[in-house]
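Posting here for the record, re: P53.
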Amino acid sequence: MKGVSMTQLKFPEGFLWGGATAANQLEGAWDVDGRGPSVMDYVTNGSHHSPRIFTYPERPDRYYPNRSGIDHYHRYEEDIALFAEMGFKVYRLSISWTRIFPNGDDAQPNQKGIEFYRNVFLACKKYGIEPLVTINHFDMPLHLSQKYRGWASRDTIEFFMNYVTVIFNEYKDLVKYWLTFNEINLVTNPFGSLLAGIPQDDGASFFSMRPETEAQRSERFTALHHEFVASAKAVILGKSINPDFMIGCMIAGMTGYPHTCNPDDIIAAQQAMNFGNFLCSDVQVRGEYPGFAKRYFRDHNVTIDLTPEDEVLLKEGKVDFYSFSYYQSHCVSVDPDILKKAGNMSFGIQNPYLKASDWGWVVDPKGLRYYLNEVYNRYQVPVMVVENGLGAVDVKNEDGSVHDDYRIDYMRQHIEQMAEAVADGVDLIGYTPWGCIDLVSAGTGEMKKRYGFIFVDKGDLGDGSYDRSRKDSFFWYKKVIASNGTDLE
Ligand code: P53
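Prediction output follows.
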């Protein structure tokens, strides 16, 4: 079926166009003005084919790219001015926990850290940009990980609430939109353990599949449970501080299609969608664990310390909206031969109808429309796409220009599919493409996997001037925003 013609496709008035970043990937200045170390500061660089590793202590011969980021800490004014030049209505950023509480369990917050984000929000305000703040984006104080095992400990909920209390009170008049945990559903997967602050051996690979014992699996789901409780408590507290706060969940949106129409593939794909995507948002949007999660816990001997008080908190701390990242889709199969061929890939089986990026991420704009409909049909709350984009190698010309037509094509197709979803009735309220300014890749630690409208002159090992320049996509996105998504040429 042919889609609705472009002229009929519209975004709602006041649609929040913008871009997204995360403190750990752009700020740098990891030990400046009283900031404490976080787990990510001890993760090395890697590449598409060699994993990043967590090392403690640090190794003198290795490079830790998050420590310098793109030095946004010292250049935020210039960066936000560039966002404003594109016409951003919203800017998604995260607060670094260890700038506010350097160890996580300190008695007093660090005033310099509080001041930094106030300045960032004031800069946004100057340009009429609405901040959208991720409270925790891949950001665990190293000390909490080492002393308490991160989210595996219930104590971490209290430390987190100290942090949340400070930032909600300090910024209640400057920030309205909040997200609790970035891509919380990554913790349903073994590669999410380090993100939940569960200590790993020196040299453990970051973001790859790892074998797990039954006890480790229970610990991981306990950590996830503590994050749910913390998220609910943050929502309850936020509403009491400012009833106008809009607080959302944030899910890594992974569209999984059945590889064939074999009913076993259909069920497997449904289970993958349920478990991978909906388990967490069912808890955060609906306020309770879904039946399939309870069944999984039973069948796999997973014990989490779910108390009657927790159940009440989960019910009372439901989020106002659903946000997610969307990059790719994959296929799900039960066929042993196909599974064997796919090997140990964390993203499932490739779709023969689609092509992958240079990093093997399968580009599928229609999967975004599909996912938006699935989510809205399930929850009927406002939805925001808070990450999307193409990680690609860019070539900067001598005059600073970058001809990134491949990125423009990618974004145009995804925006078209969002417009289709709006026409389908989805209450889509905003779009903040990932890495609106080039930053350190989470998965590989590289700089050359770039997403930005703004090029940053930094190489994989930290070399370069860190100068900013406008790519072709910068001027294109500016037009998109000015036309509220109707001019995509
Ligand atoms: P990079 C895995 C699966 C889905 C989203 O990723 C993911 C990851 C981690 O790679 O991360 C999100 O930089 C995340 C961002 C990250 C972005 O996607 O590996 O929220 O921090 O940078 C893109 O290309």
